[in-house]
Amino acid sequence: MMTDFRIQERIFGPSAVFRVVPGHHATSLASKLSRRERWVLLLLDGRRSVADLARLTQRGELDIAYTLARFLQWGYIEPVNTMEYTIDQFEAGYSPA
């Protein structure tokens, strides 16, 4: 049980990063979602963390994690490998909006 919690904490922690599953177009998916969900989906770029999304949408991290969990369940998004993200971010000098 504790292990499940740690896995979930790592997946939906403030530094977790997600992207739209390749082959799914965010704009076509967005038409099926509420305004709040659309906003989160359209901000997913494979570089923004849960904390970034919370700041940009002025929502809590838990609220963002709940929305992302639903997207994962529906197959709309996938987690980004954190090590891959960190290297890409460093090389590109990326800074979220």
Shape: globular
Q: What fraction of the residues are assigned to beta strands by DSSP?
A: 5-15%
Contiguous low-pLDDT stretches (5 residues minimum) are: none
Q: Give the structural class.
A: mainly alpha
Q: What's the rounded overall pLDDT mean?
A: 79
Total domains: 1
Number of helices: 6
Strand arrangement, largest sheet? 1-2
Distance between the termini: 37 Å
What does this structure look like?
By secondary structure, this protein is mainly alpha-helical. The chain has one domain (18-92). Helices cover 59% and strands 6% of the residues. The protein has six helices and two strands. It has a two-stranded antiparallel ribbon. α4 (50-57) crosses α5 (61-74). The longest helix is centred in the last third of the chain and has 14 residues, at 61-74. The protein is globular and about 25 Å long.
